[in-house]
Amino acid sequence: MNEEQQNQKEIKQPFAYDLVSIICTALVVIMVVFTFFFRFVGVVGDSMNPTLYENDWLLVRAINTEYKYGDIIISTQPNAFNEPIVKRVIATGGQTVDIDFETGDVFVDGELLQEDYIAERTTTKQDVNFPVVVPEGCIFAMGDNRNDSTDSRSTAIGMIDERYIIGKVLFRVLPFDQFAYFE
Questions:
Q1: Domain extent at residue 129
Q2: How far apart are CA 148 and CA 78, in angstroms?
Q3: Staple partner for 47: which of 77, 149, 153, 182, CB 3.0–4.6 Å?
Q4: CA–CA gap between residue 100 and residue 128 (Å, rounded)
Q5: Rounded average pLDDT per 10-residue block, the chain, 183 residues
Q6: Which run of H or E residues covers position 27?
Q7: Ramachandran region of residue 70, left (φ > 0), alpha (ψ -120 to 50) or beta?
């Protein structure tokens, strides 16, 4: 082996080591970010139509301590469906929710909600009696497709304990042509 070949071999070895090291470091950083800060979640079902649709993929901020009206959240609270759910926050701990099923109006603390995001007015009653006060540490959440959504109006889901909320939806990332920001 001549001197030029020896020099080329010495240059390739550190380069390969550096490349593998960079790739491994990048993978570890990505895993940490997507484990502790952000998550990707797929939508199952039609309960959030027309805002979200079946098979949409969402980027969820996994760190959040306060939720407010209008936030779209992902909950892993045990429920009758044995799957995570995607719903919209309607009220938080200490607030009173009332629904007039004849007019479809939803009230929180006596104030009528302006719900431009829903598919249709809330006329489907489930097995929770209203008005209802949301316990501290819980949220009352409903799907945007109110008459085709099992949510906090039903004991099958109930009030959602904030400890089971894995995060707040930030973006719809797939399908690409329907990218949306939700915060």
A1: 40-181
A2: 20
A3: 149
A4: 13
A5: 56 68 75 68 86 87 81 85 88 94 94 92 90 95 91 90 89 81 75
A6: helix 3-36
A7: left
- Are residue 62 and residue 21 in the same domain, yes or no? no
Residue 181: count other Cβ atoms within 10 Å of its Cβ: 9
Co-location of 67 and 102 in the same domain: yes
Both 104 and 87 in one domain: the answer is yes
- A 10 A CB-CB count for 37 gives 12
pLDDT score recorded for residue 153: 92
Query: What is the number of domains present in the chain?
Result: 2
pLDDT of residue 4: 59
Strand pairing class (38-42; 57-61): antiparallel
Q: Which DSSP category does 169 fall into?
A: E
Alpha-carbon distances of 40 from 15, 16, 21, rounded to whole Å: 34, 32, 26
* b/e code 13-23 from CB counts within 10 Å (16+ = b): eeeeeeeeeee
Looking at the fold, whether 12 and 54 belong to one and the same domain comes out as: no
> Catalytic positions, please?
47, 87
Name the 3-class secondary structure at 179: coil
Do residues 88 and 162 both lie within one domain? yes
Do residues 60 and 82 share a domain?
yes
